[in-house]
Amino acid sequence: MPRVLLIDDDIELAELATEFLTLEGFEVEVARRGDTGLDRAIAGGFDCIILDVMLPGLGGFEVLRRLRGQSGVPVLMLTARGDDADRILGLESGADDYLPKPFNPRELAARLRAVLRRFATTGTHDGPPREKLEVGDLEMNLASRSLRRGGEKIELTGLEFDLLSAFLKEAGKVVPREIIFRDVFGRKLLAGDRSIDTHVSNLRRKLGAHPDGTERFKNLRGVGYGYALPENFHADEAESSTSAEQTEVISTKNEA
Predict the structure, then answer these.
(1) Cα–Cα distance between 5 and 97 in angstroms, integer?
(2) Which residue, of 49, 76, 129, 193, has the greatest Cβ tally within 10 A?
(3) Which residue has the higher pLDDT, 247 or 240?
(4) Stretch 102-116: mean pLDDT, rounded?
(5) Same domain, yes or no: 244 and 138
(6) Exposed, middle or buried by CB within 10 Å (0-12, 13-18, 19+), for 130?
(7) CATH (domain of 48)
């Protein structure tokens, strides 16, 4: 049974969410202050944290910042509906997903399951799971969920890790937004949802450019993103690679 920590001072909302999530098979613990919630989250034992932005004791963004310094536990932020600033700040601070208030409890449960699925080790679409992905100076261990760039360990959030692994598996190609949301976020792409842009921006900031100075991520406007191969990349460094000058877009046909 997944254990969830809900940090929110809205008593009515917390009771409603707890009741519904319990029926859906989650074990829920509630903290009504940011400081006490942070202490419980750091103590561990939770599979996911639901974190409100406005909290007494310690604000939600500060809770997230301190938590990310000690734990990679998945975090789902609760934001005010239509508040893009809070949503972007939360994602930039390391949140794995967000849900605007007020929300349908069914959507909350669905988002939680999607976040937890992303934290499971992922493999290829066919054949046995691969334990490692190596592209250029990046080495990703799927079993330990760790990443090294030129031997240096790089800290990623759970969603950043899964997003990067999806890009590396299709290095040299552009992955459409619809596929990214389906396979990585675990939900459909909704009109106006730009959260992927924030996550890719975070990856750019953490990974920097290729050693040759070229950009790691390519954005095909209106289509999607991809991991661009360095100029000196050789075909024998990865299976079925494309050259750095080519851009192949993965087909969205036959989507489930």
Answers:
(1) 15
(2) 49
(3) 247
(4) 89
(5) yes
(6) middle
(7) 3.40.50.2300
Query: In the predicted model, what is the mean pLDDT of residues 178-191?
Result: 85
Task: With a cut of 60, say whether residue 129 has pLDDT above it.
Answer: no
Nearest to 130 by CA among 90, 101, 78, 166: 166
Burial letters 182-198, b for 16+ CB under 10 A, else e: bbbbbeebeeeeebbeb
Going by pLDDT thresholds of 50, 70 and 90, the confidence category of residue 249 is low
Residues 26 and 114 in one domain: yes
Structure tokens at 204: 């750019």
In 3-state terms, the chain is what percent helix, strand and coil (to 5)?
35, 20, 40
CA distance readout (Å), 106 to 109, 111, 188: 5, 9, 15
Measured CA to CA, the distance from residue 210 to residue 203 in angstroms comes to 13
* Beta carbons within 10 angstroms of residue 18's beta carbon: 18
* 195 lies in some domain: yes
In terms of domains, do 44 and 102 share one? Answer: yes
- CATH number of the domain encompassing residue 203: 1.10.10.10
pTM for this structure? 0.59
Asked whether the beta carbons of 255 and 182 are under 8 A apart, the reply is: yes
